[in-house]
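In this section we walk through a basic example: taking a raw amino acid sequence and producing a predicted 3D structure, encoded as discrete structure tokens. The instruction is simple. Fold the sequence below.
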Amino acid sequence: MLKGTPTGAETSGTSRKQFMLLEGAPILVHTVRKFVASPLVHDIVVAVREEDIPWVEDLLVKEGRGLLGALRVVAGGNSRQESVENALRSLDADTDMVAVHDAVRPFIDLDTIRRVVEEAQETGAAIVGIVPVDTVKQVSGAQAGGAKVRSTISRERLILAQTPQVFRKEILERAFAAARTDNFTGTDESSLVERLDQVEISVVLGSDRNIKITRPNDMDLARLFFEHETAKH
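The resulting token sequence is shown next.
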């Protein structure tokens, strides 16, 4: 995670998608490299299945050598929410800021990391998001077949949430505690923090390249993005 004024980053992931190979290396490794390269990141915590911890630690040991702090691997849970909370508990008590990032978003760029961290340092909570380009419809009935359109939602008031999502540690801890008390499950960390009184979450504009690799055919686009990144350097 992100520690102190320079922060630390947590990469969460509970499925096998983060281990798919992209140009010879697991997606997780590509993602971790981005945060190791950020001067704002001190510590990185990766949440994986307990049985995967030993070999993931071996996989990441050389990747963490550029960190000022530590790169460690912890056991995740049965959901994203449980995995992130487990990683949150592993942080040092003096950690100030926490960034949560999907392990399967390897094309996050350093400038976006910087901007969202700086915004969260100022406001306490910030996420990365992009404006949808497609027309969004509100429907009733089944989502797949049989759905009926009820209205068109203005895109001016919509964003598609990405990661990193960055928060002051005490805010994120309060959000998880409230969720446990209410038996609430959110789809991301922002959805937990949104439930707190007197906490507003800022949005930093992201990029449509910051894709979340969830299906095998996403790898075709990932390979194209990787070629473009490699060509720049």
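Looking at the output, two observations stand out. The longest strand covers residues 160-168. The chain has seven helices and eleven strands. In the next section we compare this with other chains.
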